[in-house]
Design a protein that fits this description.
single chain; alpha+beta; six-stranded mixed beta sheet; 31% strand
Length: 160
């Protein structure tokens, strides 16, 4: 009887050790998988954020057009009109972002444009982010009243 009891206890101990090892491996695998998913999410958000530098200036709401034909520039009058637009769709789209267009050549004037574009050079589209990721890129700003093109930049900032 003692030999049988000893064998059963030995088998139970071996099963217990295997179960403990199995659970440790599962916990390590779970943590590795979660970290991998979080890294993929971070990469996706960063890529999506970097793509916005191409998307924002090419939105029909900002893009220049002449007789229905789109031109590769940003219309300043559309920027001023967009600022006064209070639309839930855009508020949701830009809720955690700061987006602005700024004239950098021939003159750099950091003063914000509110109702017209005289004596100013910064067109704020959304101002909702404090600090975080930031990307900027060159754009051509078209001043329709003067029929003049100027060099500017679009800056997009997003909270982390």
């Amino acid at each position: 009887m003692k030999k049988g009891s000893l064998k059963i206890q030995e088998t139970i101990m071996v099963m217990f050790v295997f179960i403990v090892i199995f659970f440790l491996v599962m916990i390590i695998f779970y943590r590795f998988t979660i970290n991998s998913i979080k890294e993929e999410e971070r990469n996706y958000k960063l890529e999506r954020f970097n793509l916005m530098i191409e998307i924002i200036p090419n939105m029909p709401e900002f893009k220049c057009s002449e007789l229905g034909k789109e031109i590769d520039c940003v219309d300043v009058l559309k920027l001023l009109g967009f600022k006064n637009l209070n639309n839930e769709y855009y508020n949701e789209m830009f809720k955690d972002k700061t987006i602005y267009f700024e004239e950098i050549y021939p003159e750099e004037n950091g003063q914000e444009c509110v109702s017209n574009y005289f004596n100013c050079g910064k067109f704020i589209i959304a101002d909702n982010a404090e600090a975080g990721l930031r990307v900027s890129g060159p754009v051509v700003l078209y001043y329709a009243n003067e029929d003049e093109y100027k060099i500017g930049k679009v800056v997009i900032q997003e909270e982390k």
